[in-house]
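Slack export, channel: ligand-projects

TW: morning all. Re-posting the request from yesterday since it got buried. We need the structure predicted with the small molecule present, not the apo form. The ligand is zinc ion; the SMILES is in the block with the sequence. No rush, but it would help planning for next week.
GE: picking it up
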Amino acid sequence: MPASSLRLDLHNHTSFSADGLMSPAVLLSVAKVKGVHCLAVTDHNTVRGALEAVALAEADLTLPRVIPGIELATEVGEIIGLYVWEDIPSGLPLLEAVTRIRARAVSSTCPTRTICSGVVPFPGEPERSQPSSPTSSK
Ligand SMILES: [Zn+2]
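GE: finished. pasting the full token output, ligand included:
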């Protein structure tokens, strides 16, 4: 499948978040109907919904692939962490939260690796170069 035809949704909540209405199973079913190939489950301050969604997707390969994640409250606001498989305490200073997310981000066993490879950067992969912005010559 060419990367340009992949449909990703990298910020989703389940009923494990106070503002999430759908169970992980319902979220995956809705995403499947909408043609999403891969989604990140990023509940507020917990990976429990993400881990349930990963288990559901692993048991049913017709469902979208799942990136486990978290939307973590820090002292300065919320940040999204992807490939996070363990809970991280909320309310940390931003740098500490980022450090912990990076330490917990493991992609080697991520079931989305084959479908998302080349589209979503994985922890440990070299940074991709960004297109250079046009520069004016005077
Ligand atoms: Zn959110």
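GE: first-pass observations. Helices lie at 24-33, 48-59, 94-104, 113-116. The two ends are 44 Å apart (CA to CA).
TW: perfect, thank you
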